From TrEMBL:
GO molecular function: medium-chain fatty acid-CoA ligase activity
This protein's record includes keyword Thylakoid: no
Domain of life of the organism encoding this protein: Bacteria
Matching Gene3D superfamilies: 3.30.300.30, N-terminal domain of ligase-like (3.40.50.12780)
Protein's name according to its UniProt entry: 4-chlorobenzoate--CoA ligase
Family affiliation: Belongs to the ATP-dependent AMP-binding enzyme family.
Organism of origin: Sulfitobacter donghicola DSW-25 = KCTC 12864 = JCM 14565
GO BP, sorted A to Z: fatty acid metabolic process
Residue intervals of the AMP-binding enzyme C-terminal domain: 414-488
Entry keywords, A to Z: Ligase
Length: 509
């Protein structure tokens, strides 16, 4: 298999004059981008970086960041991107754990860089300045030759640690390229398509968008920081043809006052991942975009694609079937191996084959995490789910999120999807809160989109197909539903009481 540097060079040779990347009014062709990336490869070499070294980045989705990702692939440098909202302690963990030699950052991460205990011992490359990243990209050098092989490490992502320090997920060139090729096939991208590059380049979704765009001679339209007016302007200006976003960003787009279907008329394909999408949002997106393809993509940083459903609106909640590089099973909760599987309709833990072309091989310096997650050639995802009678997978949530109330298991995703169909519910999150009698009581946190009361929502649930024991027994109306920087719902903050209740004067009796 090709390494990623050679893969990029092949794209340059196929489509030298095609638009490869854009940001605002700036557009760059493949040939011009390769020239700039070659200058950057040379610049990285001049500051002492060599094949196999690790470089940490803390940057927004600007074109210089995307250029750095490709330069590292060509030079054989292991790029380790972290959230640009990183704290000083989080940054130091990544720098120490990855044995980084260089840190590259923009102004968004300046506070963390200033507070870091390890930065003074590293080579630091800012975005601006005479010796910065932008200056390197404006230089000149001979065309860069790919230095990595398919078996070399390409990137190391850090998982979002909720109960422990984030874990490094090292991924090889061959796994990254296999994932990009599969992404093109499963999303049916055509030659020259353009994607909105707003999912962060420290997240697997952002990297996949970047790599898959190059495979098809397409364009990565950078949006450094998400905001709906900026996203709509970029889609219109650059005729973006596909979107690959988390549900939260879709929600924000279609509910914004500036949104009209005409403004996104160029978009023909939708894909989402990172979290479940409620039935209400699925319906609204299908009506607003009328896409040719609507893909639910279920995966992780460790094994990029688990399953794909290419008609998400037709079977709400379905994650489809195993992806083209994967095999999946559902095993009983608490199972120690993957040999015993659940019957159709029986909920258990989803496990994925480690033989897949997109799989990682284990966590970075975390043997205890490997022992917990990898067993007999299968990756235990920590997600709960089931196969229905048709053989389609349904992801019901994280094992840790499952609500056990009165001895019954309740999936918060199912309850959220039911409540999302009420026209006055803008957003909803469901968790289990401690209760003396029931152990946990199903509690719905609701951001209103109109006048609605607890009684209204209870009546809505009673008139639905939701089982009686799954109905919320408590409702809390909040200003906002807490989410991570990439739009993932943070249930743990609701459980911990870290939310702002909607003022009493705005509630209805």
């Amino acid at each position: 298999m090709l390494d990623l540097g050679t893969s990029f060079l092949a794209s340059v040779e196929r489509d030298p004059d095609a638009m490869a990347i854009a940001e605002g009014d700036q557009t760059i062709t493949y040939a011009d981008w390769y020239r700039r990336i070659s200058a950057l490869v040379d610049g990285l070499g001049q500051i002492g970086l060599r094949k196999g070294d690790t470089l940490v980045t803390a940057m927004q989705n600007r074109w210089e960041n995307a250029s750095l990702h490709w330069a590292c692939q060509i030079a054989g440098i292991v790029i380790t991107p972290v959230n640009w909202r990183v704290t000083a302690d989080e940054l130091d963990h990544a720098l120490h754990d990855s044995a980084a030699r260089v840190l590259v950052h923009d102004d968004a991460a300046s506070e963390a860089v200033a507070g870091s205990a390890l930065v003074p011992n590293l080579k630091v490359l800012p975005l601006g300045g005479d010796q910065g990243l932008a200056a390197m990209l404006s230089g000149s050098a001979a065309d860069a030759a790919p230095q990595a092989g398919a078996d070399d490490l390409s990137v190391m992502l850090y998982t979002s640690g909720t109960t422990s320090k984030p874990k490094g997920v090292p991924r090889r060139h061959r796994a990254e390229r296999a994932a990009a090729i599969a992404h093109v096939a499963q999303n049916m991208y055509g030659h020259g398509e353009r994607t909105l590059g707003v999912m962060p380049l420290y997240h697997t979704m952002g990297i996949r968008s970047l790599l898959s765009a190059s495979v098809i001679g397409g364009a990565f339209v950078c949006l450094p920081r998400f905001d709906v007016p900026g996203a709509l302007a970029a889609i219109e200006q650059h005729r973006v043809s596909n979107l690959y976003l988390v549900p939260t960003l879709y929600h924000d787009i279609v509910h914004h006052a500036a949104f009209t279907p005409d403004r996104v008329a160029s978009v023909r394909k939708l894909g989402f991942a990172g979290a479940s999408m409620t039935d209400g949002l699925l319906q609204k997106l299908a009506e607003a975009f009328q896409p040719e393809l609507f893909v639910n993509h279920y995966g992780s940083s460790e094994i990029y694609t688990f399953s794909i459903c290419q008609d998400a609106a037709a079977k709400p909640g379905s994650a489809g079937r195993a992806a083209i590089n994967q095999r999946l099973r559902v095993v009983p909760l608490g199972a120690t191996d993957a040999s015993q599987t659940c019957a159709p309709g029986e909920e258990g833990e989803i496990v994925a084959s480690m033989q897949g072309d997109e799989a990682f091989e284990g966590y970075w310096n975390r043997p205890e995490a490997d022992r917990k997650a990898i067993r007999d050639g299968w990756y235990f995802t920590g997600d709960c789910g089931l196969f229905d009678e048709d053989g389609d997978l349904f992801v019901t949530g994280r094992a840790d999120d499952m609500i056990i109330t009165g001895g019954e298991n309740v999936s918060p995703v199912e309850v959220e999807s039911c409540l999302s169909l009420h026209p006055a519910v803008a957003e909803v999150a469901v968790v289990g809160l401690p209760d003396v009698r029931w152990g946990k009581v199903v509690t719905a946190f609701v951001k209103r989109g109109g006048d609605v009361t607890e009684d209204d929502l209870d009546a809505h649930c009673r008139s639905s197909d939701l089982s009686n024991f799954r109905r919320p027994r408590r409702y809390v109306f909040v200003r906002e539903i807490p989410k991570s920087p990439v739009g993932k719902l943070l249930r743990r903050l609701l459980v911990a009481g870290e939310y702002e209740v909607e003022p009493a004067e705005t509630t209805t009796a």
